[in-house]
Amino acid sequence: MAGRLNKRELLRRTLSATGGIKALESLPVWNGLLVLNYHRIGTPTDPLFDEALWSATQDDFDRQVRILKDGFDVIGLSELPDAMRDLQGAGRQPWKSSRFAMITFDDGYVDNYELAYPVLKANDATGVFFVATGFIDEPRLAWWDEIAWMIRSSTRDTIGLPENWLDEPQKLDGSDRRQVINRLLRIYYRLDGCRTTQFLDGIADATGSGRAPKEAADGQWMTWEMIREMSDGGMDFGAHTVTHPILANLTADEQGMEICESRLRLEKQLDRPITSLSYPVGKRESFNDDTRAALSNHGFDWGFSYYGGHSSGVDVDRYDIPRVAIESDVSMADFRSCCALPHVFARH
Q: Which residues does 52 contact at the CB level (< 8 Å), separation at least 6?
C-alpha cells in the first residue's frame, strides 16, 4: 500500500511540475462520474471538536467549484439518471462532455448554509446535501465530535477503559490528543448499535469530562428554515439517517427505521421526494445486504458510499455510488490531479 501511495505522489508531483495536469484537463482522457464529498467549509472554530471534518476553506472551495464547472457537467440528483444513460451510450442530453461531477456534503453542519451555499450559488452549481435529520431536530454533538470533546476536555494524564475496548491505558499528555481520539473512533466503528451509548458513557467516566452538554452543539447545525431556503434555491437534498449510526452494525429492523424515518422527515420538511441516501462513514464494511434491502423497500434509487473511486457508468451499482473524500490536507494540485485522472488519484 505504501508503495502505491508513493508512486501516485511521484506521478502527481511530476504532472504538477511539468504542466501535465493542465494538459490532461483539456483532453478527453476519461469519461464517467466523479462524486466529491465534503463535510465542513471554513476553518475549525472550536479546538475541542474533531477537526478532521473540515474539508476546505471557503476560498479553496470556490476554486474547486470553478475547476469542476470548467471541466465537467456538474449535476444534481435529478440529472443523475440521464448522466448514467449518457455514459452507457443512450443519453439524449446536450452535455458539455461525458465527464460528470457531483458536489456532495454529509451531516448538515451550519457552514454548509453560511459558506458553501453562497459559493455554489455564485458559480451556478448544484450541491447535494445529505442530512442526518436527528441533528437538525434535536441539536447535539455528533458522536465523533463528542469523543473529541471528552478527550480534549479531560484534565487527566491517563485514561483506561475495559479490556474489551482498550488493551492498555491511554496517555493524554499531548495538547492535541489526536491519536487517542482516532483510536477511540476506530473502536466505535466496530460497535453494535446497542453498545455505543455504553462506550460513550465509559469514555465520559474515564476522562472525568462527563457527556457533552446539549449547549455544546449551539450553532453547529443547519435549521430546517436554512435547508428549505437552500432547497428552494436549487440545492438537492438526500437522507443520511436520523442519528448517523454505522448501519451495518444495526439489525435489519433498526436500519430500516433509520433509513425510512430520515426520508420521511426530509420529505415532510421539503415537500418533495427523497430518493437518495449516503451511508454514514461509508466504508465497504459500513453497509451490507440488509442496508441495500432497506433502501429498496423504502423507495430509494441511489446509495452513496465513501471509500474513493469514480464510476465509469458501466455496470453501475446504484446502491454503491463511489465518492472521493475532500479533506483539509488536499492541495489544489491534489484536487486537479484527482479530477484529471480519477482512476489513479481518486482511490483511497
A: 327
pLDDT in tens, 325-342: 999 889 998 999 899 888
Bin 313: left if φ > 0, else alpha if -120 < ψ < 50, else beta. Answer: left
DSSP state of 32: E
Torsion 275-95-58-119 (CA) sign: negative
pLDDT in tens, 165-184: 888 999 998 778 999 999 99
- What is the number of structural domains in the chain? 2
| Distance (Å, whole) CA 241 – CA 189 | 16
When computed from its CA atoms, the radius of gyration of the chain, rounded to whole angstroms, is 20
The two beta strands, 170-171 and 158-159, are antiparallel
187 and 147 within one domain:
yes
Helix or strand run (H / E) with residue 334: helix 332-340
Q: What DSSP character marks residue 27?
A: S
11-22 pLDDT, tens digit each? 555 455 555 455
Contact 230, 272 (CB under 8 A): no
- Kindly state whether residues 115 and 211 are assigned to the same domain: no
Ranges of residues in the chain with a pLDDT under 70 are: 1-29, 90-93, 347-348
Nearest to 68 by CA among 124, 12, 131: 124
Of 215, 231, 250, which closes a domain? 215
Domain of 163, in residue numbers: 143-215
Q: How far apart are CA 226 and CA 136, in angstroms?
A: 10
Q: Distance of CA 153 to CAs 48, 145, 166, 185, 247, Å?
A: 7, 12, 20, 16, 29
**Does residue 138 belong to any structural domain of this protein?**
no
Let me know whether 319 and 230 are in one domain. yes
Global pTM reads 0.91
Pure H helices in 38-194: 58-71, 80-87, 111, 117-122, 133-137, 143-153, 178-190
CA 262 from chain centre, in angstroms, equals 17
